[in-house]
Amino acid sequence: MFRNITPVVKNLLVINILVFLVANYFMPALDDWFALYNIQSELFKPFQFLTYMFMHADFWHLLSNMFGLFVFGPLLEQFLGPKKLFTLWMVCGVGAGVLYSGYSLVQYRALEDKVLTFEANPDPEYFNKLVIENRGYFTQEVFDFVDRFSRNPENPAYIEQAEGLLKEVLRLQDHPMVGASGALFGILIAFGMLFPNTQLFLLFPPMPVKAKYLVLFYGLYTVYNVLLNSPTDNVAHFAHLSGLVIGAVLVSYWKKDRTSFY
């Protein structure tokens, strides 16, 4: 089975595994340097649009991404050629990072404006609205505080505490992104577009399914999670969606000239 791994897929697997081992067991500081931080963060560096792809949160995160590359990558590399497979992986990964950063910045700025609005007019009802919108960042005790604040809206201590809680939510939103999922979703959409009727056998549930239906399911599930935008979900679904879109555009462009495949 491993003898069938194509060169680019093999090299990507080796690099990602080696980086994971080094970052977790020898140089933990790599996470602070190479993860993709929000653009407004002091820790953000432009090269992180590239390096974040080779960092992973834990073993299972690494395994899921590398397993997808291992399953779908070799056939794509044989069909597209090593240069195009590598281009697809890198463009989808970097592009997903760029688009996700823009998306995160818009979300951060929107919440920041709401926090400033509250600070200008510390209204308990408005604070309660923000708590409900971002309830995934709060513990259950915050609702007891909301009740006390509502009954004492002029209390300076309560106003200060409310401002502190909202600033903590802003701080929690300033977390980095890692992983090759954006690149992998580019691989998935490419496989679905180029081999739509290929039968794949799923592990869970154990059943066969055509590639086009599997990709459609992942696409719809990703869109659903982007629209849901749950604050308790630490998965960068918009990056996944970005990888799908970029991959689809890239493959569509390549398919215009069939002679470019080799």
Q: What's the number of helices? A: 11
The assigned CATH architecture of the largest domain is: Up-down Bundle
Total number of distinct structural domains: 2
Radius of gyration: 22 Å
CATH class of the largest domain: Mainly Alpha
Helicity level: 55-70%
| Biggest pleated-sheet summary | 2 strands, antiparallel
Mean pLDDT: 87
Instruction: Report low-confidence residues grouped into runs of 5 or more.
Output: none
Task: Write a structural description.
The structure is a single chain. By secondary structure, the protein is mainly α. The chain has two domains: 2-105 and 179-256, Rhomboid-like (Rhomboid-like fold, Up-down Bundle), CATH 1.20.1540; 111-173, no CATH class. It has helices spanning 7-25, 30-34, 48-51, 59-80, 82-120, 124-133, 141-151, 156-173, 181-194, 211-228, 237-255; strands spanning 199-201, 208-210. It has a two-stranded antiparallel ribbon with strand order 1-2. Helix 5 runs antiparallel to helix 11. The protein starts with 6 loop residues before the first helix and ends in a 7-residue tail after the last helix. It is found in: Membrane. Keywords: Hydrolase, Membrane, Protease, Transmembrane, Transmembrane helix. It is a multi-pass membrane protein.
